[in-house]
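User: I'm writing a short methods note and want a consistent example. For Pyridoxamine 5'-phosphate oxidase family protein, I'll paste the sequence; you return only the structure tokens, no commentary, since I'll be parsing the reply automatically.
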Amino acid sequence: MIDTLEQLEALFGEVGQASIQKEQAFIHPHYRAMIEASPFAVLATSGPGGLDASPRGDTPGFVVVEDEQTLLLPDRRGNNRIDSLRNLIADPRMALLFLIPGLGETLRVNGTARISVAPELLQRFAVDGKPPKCVLVIRVETAYFQCARAIQRSRLWLDSANGLAAGLPSPGTMLADFSNAQINAEQYDRELPERQRTTLY
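Assistant:
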């Protein structure tokens, strides 16, 4: 087992110069372009209850670059577990991983976040007259793009329409098993598309 930094660094070798140069302490215009093109990000947080990585998505540019050091992320309705938000109350440190369909490179942003319910900020992010529950005001500490190897190895964008989900259990099937049949699988799956459509915002 590897249990020291010296062992780990010896295993992987020296960090490439490009990997150092790409890290910026602000949102560079190149990184701003990536954020504004991204319809999906994963939000990572840490708190007393453990770690959390949660999906966030909307139309491209749903995360707003307010300035070089500040991002705004609306937090819309979901399952009300609020695992990420609970963590941020205890520990404001967070990270975002932005994905852009068709692009191998991803963008990583690390920083801290505060949870705002300022009325003018909520209204700014309203969709169809429905504001988000809150907005994360993110203070950027570092930003850098991640090379495309993981996306290339996974063939994420190449295989996404090739039926990889065929044969996987439906949400209703999983919930029926988890709840010892207290949730009806067929009814849940039948009603899910309409429920999702009417509760996106």
